[in-house]
Amino acid sequence: MTKQDRFKQLIAYFEVARPTAQSELNYENPFQLLVAVILSAQCTDKRVNMVTPALFRAYPTPAAMAQASPEEIFEYIKSISYPNNKAKHLAGMARKLESDFGGEVPSDIDELQSLPGVGRKTANVIASVIFNLPALAVDTHVFRVANRIGLTHNSKTPLQTERELVKHIPAEKIPIAHHWLILHGRYVCQARKPHCQECGIAHLCQMHLSSLKPKKAQ
Hints:
The protein is mainly α. The chain is built from 12 helices and no strands. The longest helix has 19 residues, at 83-101.
């Protein structure tokens, strides 16, 4: 099977299996999603969704959060991983949104990355989820799943994985493909114990197919 065939079959499967795949973070506008994605770094979406309701009530807009100190924000997010750094990032991000972007979340990847706490992965999430742009965020799930299935080969960095994936996925499918791969990694192709027997694309997966090959006699 060629790599292109593998991509085509994977897309066809997910279009049926997960036709409405979307973020599991709770948000109502671009600013809230940006805050939630910053908080989600090395933290579960479930935990983020537990703290954001109170945070959003306290700081419903960039202008409101820009007036808060990192110490004040910390009190709302202290159960999140790395709360001190993230509180500083949120305060700085809100202030820069106000000063440089008129309180509006930009769609440009480079402009997004100019915001404190926003790396390429977060910028790609915002660009794809909010603005439906062909940007593909690579987190640990996407990196792992792409490598196991054989969508990438010996990719060493998230950027290498991103470039390989966007090369083979049609532009209009890239925003949802991000969620396909994340959700597959979160619930099926898990890091320590992948559920290969429940996987609808096991027949495409290089790791699974390799495990079925008879081992050579010693």
